[in-house]
């Protein structure tokens, strides 16, 4: 260490000290320097100020830099590498912990002088405040260790108030980072984190409902032992231990996942929904209206993971209260339906003897977490009109999770760490998605750019394999390849007899290859954005898809659903119907102007409606059904464009690819009834553009006719 910056009191003395540094020619050991800085520098005294190291080099280090750079990252320090002249590209990446965004390459030192301001912008932009005050970001999630003691529930409430949960160290790197974080607060202290087996003994789950993956744990020898009914995990102090939740001398670590959800909502990574626990009491209709005012609906715990997460949140807010969620049998006794109009499926967790319809009970609720173990947190049917229940709302967050890039209705992210094919798929599932599945040329090009921005010299796993039947390639969702393929010449060749998994070659080849699934490669994940399938709501985004409740299965009787779509000022909205099948005459979709209540179109039957365009930034879609005969329903895209007819610079004209989970009309081979799904995805921009141009042409013709009539022509 030549000098500490803090030892210099003014600019001249600092510049003088820098000028006194001698140039080192050859034999330099950058790895040792990075390790020295980590162990000896005064960065620990900086509190919550972002910690940044900038390495400037015009050669190659004589020692390994990979390990020290990883140690710095685990300590919450961001490393930037600047290469000038005869630098080694691969080593620059290692210094920056394989983050290409933190690597800057220059031809000579004269270029460095002209790039200082640009470099400062890059560095400052990346250390800007993306996390709540006092939190540290690691792999897109913000963490904070608290130096106050609380019970498990009290700690969970403190995290909830910050917009998050207790921390979930789901992999070794995150576990190491959290340990470093807590050790700065109290290296000898015990800290709660978000792992429990309170639902089933010795089946440890994260508080978001995800299961503890085999092979990843950090238990202290002999733990967990359930001594004294211990259902909650803690750092003890640096290994995991199970403890009783009422212990009052534990500190805690929180995590927050940044999203664009409304204030007070907590993001659930596995479902890509956000949830809020309302600590006020309302009847069922009042709760529904409150959720709709937030742009959402009453929570719908349709699977075990969401159910576990909601239970965790509600108990953090009030462990003794009854909480409503969005499930009723008001229309037909015993015919339980979610608020979105979808029938209750196989997942259900009723309490003993429930539902029993005692005193005409038609609305579902959670039993309190303080009830006896066989009843606590179970579902119960209760009175819809009782104003003695609190409630939970859900909303769809805007856009993609942090670190992901959006294309249509899917978010993608390239990961730097190397895993075998199966481990990579599990890592993507932990993110709530799967390995990326490029089913058309446009998406494939998007993924190529994504991987090259991350690391153009590496291979990346994609989501397809022919493990079950040699030569029959299936995507991770079980669908076969369509007409699109992007194989490198001579591939797939099954070299070695066991190349069954799809990967993407390095640049400049950028083509597909079959590879041994056991090899370690980097990988790309994808996440499907949620589709609006609730029965109505307020939507404040500029492209998306709305489907009738239950689509593509039959919709429910006696429904009235109303969706209000609002774009930014200066925009107009266009609706493009993709599928339409309603009972003729009796069941209808009406499109209205909310400002004037003017009807823009009313549709029924099975004929696909023509596109509908708004006069300004708002549209309302109203779906009404009668008491008999249900069909498949509808699927409609909406997109905002400039009122002049031009798209916004940052808004894609195609709004969403066909949902991979839907088997709606027009997705069979040779279909639309005729075009394959990947072809629809490729051509949707052109389709929307043509429809928009047709509408503009019609508007111009109408205007011309009106002018002729005005002048008597």
UniProtKB/TrEMBL annotation:
Residues 646-685 are annotated as: Disordered. Residues 138-242, 270-384, 407-526 form the C-type lectin domain. Keywords: Coiled coil, Disulfide bond. It comes from the Eukaryota. Residues 686-713 form a coiled coil. It holds the Pfam family CUB. Residues 535-641 form the CUB domain. Residues 1-119 form the VWFA domain. This is Macrophage mannose receptor 1-like. It comes from Branchiostoma belcheri (Amphioxus).
């Amino acid at each position: 260490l030549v000098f500490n910056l803090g030892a210099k009191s003014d600019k001249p003395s600092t510049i003088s000290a820098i000028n006194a540094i001698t140039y080192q020619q050859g034999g330099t050991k950058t790895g040792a320097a990075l390790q020295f800085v980590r162990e000896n520098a005064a960065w620990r005294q900086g509190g919550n100020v972002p910690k940044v190291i900038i390495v400037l080099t015009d050669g190659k280090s004589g020692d390994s830099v990979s390990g020290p750079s990883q140690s710095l990252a685990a300590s919450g320090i961001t490393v930037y590498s600047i290469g000038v002249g005869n630098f080694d590209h691969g080593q620059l990446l290692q210094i920056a912990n394989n983050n290409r965004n933190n690597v800057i390459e220059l031809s000579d030192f004269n270029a460095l002088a002209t790039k200082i301001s640009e470099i400062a912008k890059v560095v400052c932009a990346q250390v800007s405040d993306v996390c709540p005050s006092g939190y540290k970001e690691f792999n897109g999630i913000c963490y904070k260790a608290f130096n106050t003691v609380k019970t498990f529930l009290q700690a969970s409430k403190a995290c909830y108030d910050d917009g998050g949960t207790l921390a979930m160290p789901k992999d070794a790197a995150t576990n190491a980072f959290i340990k470093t974080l807590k050790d700065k607060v109290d290296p000898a202290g015990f800290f709660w984190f978000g792992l429990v087996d309170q639902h089933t003994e010795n089946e440890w789950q994260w508080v978001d409902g995800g299961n503890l993956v085999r092979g990843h744990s950090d238990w202290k020898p002999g733990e967990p032992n359930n001594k004294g009914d211990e259902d909650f995990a803690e750092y003890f102090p640096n290994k995991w231990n199970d403890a009783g939740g009422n212990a009052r001398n534990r500190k805690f670590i929180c995590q927050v996942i940044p999203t664009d959800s409304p204030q007070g909502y907590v993001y659930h990574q596995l479902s890509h929904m956000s949830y809020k626990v309302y600590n006020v009491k309302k009847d069922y209709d009042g709760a529904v209206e409150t959720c709709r005012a937030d742009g959402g609906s009453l929570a719908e715990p349709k699977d075990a993971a969401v159910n576990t997460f909601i239970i965790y949140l509600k108990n953090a807010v009030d462990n003794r209260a009854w909480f409503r969620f969005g499930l009723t049998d008001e229309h037909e006794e015993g015919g339980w339906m979610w608020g979105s109009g979808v029938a209750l499926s196989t997942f259900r967790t009723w309490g003993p003897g429930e539902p029993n319809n005692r005193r005409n009970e038609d609305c579902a609720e959670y039993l309190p977490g303080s009830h006896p173990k066989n009843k606590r947190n179970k579902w119960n049917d209760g009175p819809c009109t009782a104003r003695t229940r609190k409630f939970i709302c859900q909303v769809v967050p805007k856009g993609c999770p942090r670190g992901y890039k959006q294309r249509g209705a899917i978010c993608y992210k390239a990961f730097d760490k190397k895993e075998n094919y199966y481990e990579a798929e599990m890592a993507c599932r932990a993110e709530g998605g799967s390995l990326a599945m490029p089913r058309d040329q446009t998406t494939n090009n998007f993924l190529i750019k994504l991987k090259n921005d991350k690391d153009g010299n590496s291979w990346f796993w994609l989501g397809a394999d022919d493990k079950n039947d040699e030569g029959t390639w299936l995507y991770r969702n079980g669908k076969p390849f369509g007409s699109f393929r992007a194989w490198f010449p001579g591939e797939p060749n099954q070299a070695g007899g066991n190349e069954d998994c799809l990967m993407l070659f390095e640049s400049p080849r950028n083509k597909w290859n079959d590879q041994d699934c056991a090899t370690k490669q980097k990988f790309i994940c994808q996440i499907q954005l949620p589709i609006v399938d609730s029965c109505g709501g307020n939507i404040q985004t500029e492209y998306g898809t709305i489907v009738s409740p239950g689509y593509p299965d039959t919709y429910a009787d006696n429904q009235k659903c109303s969706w209000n779509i609002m774009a930014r000022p200066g925009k107009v909205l266009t609706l493009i119907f993709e599928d339409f099948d309603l009972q003729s005459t009796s069941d209808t979709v009406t499109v209205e102007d909310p400002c004037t209540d003017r009807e823009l179109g009313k549709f029924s039957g099975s004929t696909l409606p023509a596109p509908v365009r708004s006069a300004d930034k708002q549209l309302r879609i109203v779906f009404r059904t009668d008491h008999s005969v249900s069909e498949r329903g509808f699927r409609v895209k909406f997109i905002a464009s400039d009122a002049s007819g031009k798209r916004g610079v940052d808004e894609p004209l195609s709004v969403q690819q066909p949902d991979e989970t839907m088997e709606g009309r027009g997705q069979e081979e040779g279909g639309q009834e005729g075009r394959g799904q990947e072809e629809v995805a490729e051509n949707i921009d052109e389709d929307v553009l043509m429809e928009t141009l047709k509408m503009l042409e019609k508007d111009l013709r109408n205007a011309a006719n009106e002018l002729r009539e005005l002048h008597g022509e």
